[in-house]
């Protein structure tokens, strides 16, 4: 089973996908004239734009829900994995994919807003919706929806559950099955309350957990501040094969940095647009800019916090890809003896500065990070089920999804970490392939929406979207939205 999954993972995450992710981010950065820099101030202002309604959520709630999906085990265990197999240089490539990916995040989120719909009284949208309505290729939309349900509902939740169970076992010596049962019960209590309960939960939990985690990281950096310049230099030298000790993993630094960067910030993956579509805003570009900002929060802040903690404390290993060849050692660097790749690295790093506290803190942070991500995955899977069952006014399939995900969470909690990560990577890779191809083909409406937004802002207006003004069809819900605004 492990060998089969590993082979499939290698095919999905080929060099072609890595090049596609970086190339797409660079292309959209140029096409939007680097909006991630030009509109940084506007991104922050828009965080608190829009209000929650019976059918949609506020911009901040949508941000919190998307961050719930972005800020997960990838920010703790994922960063540790990237460094373990790609060396310190993987950090640079995570930063680069985040910076370029902010423009990709804008395009996909804006498209999700343009082509959103209302189903069972709630706003829904995402790649399947904009593929069908924007590209007019229904079979492609159906295919993406099926892949998304499988990925978000079956393949990805197990990774989050596995890291939570692993972290709690390291800190509290609690059996993984016990953690699994607890996760299942809490998950059920929230998701049976609907999207509004998910939005409320993440609105309060996500900012609290992210700020708390980064504060601890800042303290660790301050304690050993004199080594910060050397650590930053190590990251850049390793990223460009200028550090002899990590030369063997130079190519892997790019591969693991991009892979874990996308897994963490989700730019281009096609997951965040589902949540972006639920935001109640007056113009699609508003939520596009908010989603761009969330990529910065995830990678440049939270992922960097983990990376600097590991590198400054030295509590990490870098595996030697040549291990097994005569004379080759197992590690190019070994600072976390007898600790498996994953959250244990971060727990060890914190314990080295806060003895007796670090492991517990990471376990608790990991619980909140990963659990809110599982909730985001549920919403994504549910949205695609809504797309596939739009002709049915029945929540039956949503109940089936809830039960399946409860089983997946339990299985992921007791599963082997490597298998769980490989399965999760397949899910991320498949969605990224389909979504990036779709947004490249359907970029024009998103770029036109950005131009329209900038034009109205220059006129001193609070931008309002009228699809006909930019030549967009099949965005019928915006006629209803504007009528409601005028009442």
Automatic annotation (TrEMBL):
Membrane spanning stretches: 12-30, 67-86, 136-156, 176-195, 204-225, 231-254, 293-312, 360-380, 396-414, 426-450
Gene Ontology molecular function: amino acid:sodium symporter activity
Recorded topology in the membrane: Multi-pass membrane protein
Keyword tags: Cell membrane, Membrane, Symport, Transmembrane, Transmembrane helix, Transport
Gene Ontology CC, one term: plasma membrane
Subcellular localization(s) per the UniProt record: Cell membrane
Pfam families attached to this UniProt entry: Na_Ala_symp
InterPro entries, alphabetized: Na/Ala_symport
Family of the protein in this entry: Belongs to the alanine or glycine:cation symporter (AGCS) (TC 2.A.25) family.
NCBIfam families: agcS
Protein name: Alanine:cation symporter family protein
């Amino acid at each position: 089973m492990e060998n089969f999954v590993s082979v499939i993972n290698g095919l999905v995450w080929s060099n072609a996908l890595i090049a596609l992710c970086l190339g797409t981010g660079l292309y959209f950065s140029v096409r939007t004239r680097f909006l991630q820099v030009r509109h940084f101030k506007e991104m922050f202002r828009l965080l608190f734009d829009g209000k929650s309604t019976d059918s949609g959520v506020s911009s901040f709630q949508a941000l919190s829900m998307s961050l719930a999906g972005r800020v997960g085990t990838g920010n703790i265990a994922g960063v540790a994995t990237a460094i373990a197999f790609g060396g310190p240089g993987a950090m640079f490539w995570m930063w680069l994919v985040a910076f370029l990916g902010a423009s990709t995040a804008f395009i996909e989120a804006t498209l999700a807003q343009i082509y959103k719909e209302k189903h069972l009284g709630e706003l829904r949208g995402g790649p399947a919706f904009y593929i069908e309505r924007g590209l007019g290729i229904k079979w492609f939309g159906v295919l993406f929806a099926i892949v998304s349900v499988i990925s978000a509902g079956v393949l990805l939740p197990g990774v989050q559950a596995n890291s939570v169970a692993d972290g709690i076992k390291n800190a509290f010596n609690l059996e993984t099955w016990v953690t699994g049962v607890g996760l299942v019960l809490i998950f059920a209590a929230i998701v049976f309350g609907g999207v509004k309960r998910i939005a409320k939960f993440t609105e309060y939990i996500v900012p609290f957990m992210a700020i708390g985690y980064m504060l601890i990281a800042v303290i660790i950096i301050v304690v050993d501040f004199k080594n910060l310049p050397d650590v930053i230099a190590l990251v850049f030298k390793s990223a460009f094969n200028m550090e002899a000790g990590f030369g063997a993993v130079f190519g892997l630094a790019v591969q693991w940095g991009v892979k874990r960067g996308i897994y963490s910030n989700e730019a281009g993956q096609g997951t965040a647009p589902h949540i972006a579509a639920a935001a109640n805003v007056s113009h699609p570009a508003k939520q596009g800019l908010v989603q761009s900002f969330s990529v910065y929060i995830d990678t440049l802040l939270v992922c960097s916090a983990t990376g600097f903690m590991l590198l400054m404390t030295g509590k990490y290993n870098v595996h030697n890809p040549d291990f097994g060849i005569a004379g080759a050692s197992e590690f190019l660097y070994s600072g976390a003896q007898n600790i498996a790749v994953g959250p244990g690295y971060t727990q060890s790093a914190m314990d080295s500065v806060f003895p007796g506290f670090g492991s517990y803190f990471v376990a608790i942070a990991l619980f909140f990070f990963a659990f809110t991500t599982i909730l985001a995955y549920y919403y994504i899977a549910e949205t695609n089920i809504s797309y596939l069952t739009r002709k049915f006014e029945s929540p039956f399939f949503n109940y089936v999804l809830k039960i399946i995900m409860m089983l997946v969470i339990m299985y992921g909690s007791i599963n082997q970490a490597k298998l769980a990560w490989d399965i999760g990577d397949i899910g991320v890779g498949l969605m990224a392939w389909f979504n990036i191809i779709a947004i490249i083909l359907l970029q024009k409406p998103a770029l036109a929406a950005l131009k329209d937004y900038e034009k109205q802002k220059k006129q001193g207006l609070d931008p309002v979207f009228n699809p006909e003004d930019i030549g967009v069809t099949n965005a019928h819900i915006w006629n209803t939205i504007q009528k409601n605004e005028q009442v």
